[in-house]
Every structure is written in C-alpha cells, then in structure tokens.
Description:
With 107 residues, the chain is α+β, with helices and mostly antiparallel strands.
Amino acid sequence: xxxxxxxxxxxxxxxxxxxxxxxxxxxxxxxxxxxxxxxxxxxxxxxxxxxxxxxxxxxxxxxxxxxxxxxxxxxxxxxxxxxxxxxxxxxxxxxxxxxxxxxxxxx
Length: 107
C-alpha cells in the first residue's frame, strides 16, 4: 500500500538530498513530497536521521496514518525555536515555548 508523505529538512548532506529525490520531488528547497510504500518511507526516514548532525540539522516527516487527524508527524534533530509534539487524547499538537519576560527587554 502506498502512502502520501511530506518531508521537510534543514542542514542535511547533499548525498542524502539526492537519495530523497530518487523517490520524491522537491517543490521547494528542503521540502519533499511523494507517494511511497511504507518500506521506502521508513528507509528514507532512517537515512535522514542517520545523516543529521544534531547541532544543526532537523527534519519532520508527515504521512497519512489511521489516526483521528488522518496523519502522523515525526521529528528529528534540533530547530532554532524548539517546538515539541504533544499527544492530547490521540491528537498531535505542536507546542511552542512561551517567551519569558526579561526586565532589560523592551517589549
């Protein structure tokens, strides 16, 4: 069975980008989309995770799944603004950090 998938990346090696484009199209820099089998999707995701330097690179995989939302999100690596995925009764939500108010900061 094939599944629709979207992968967004930053800071991955050119060789990994080339491997992804064998299976998916790249409509924008670092954004890949395509229809993949589960086996190919998992293979690509493992290759992406193995190639990411945790200090600079990150990736997110979105694919259809039998959930309430109809899709599943998976992330790997670090982003400049740390977001976290939270499961709320079967719904995946993205939590953003709350900025702290510093006395020296002009809001």
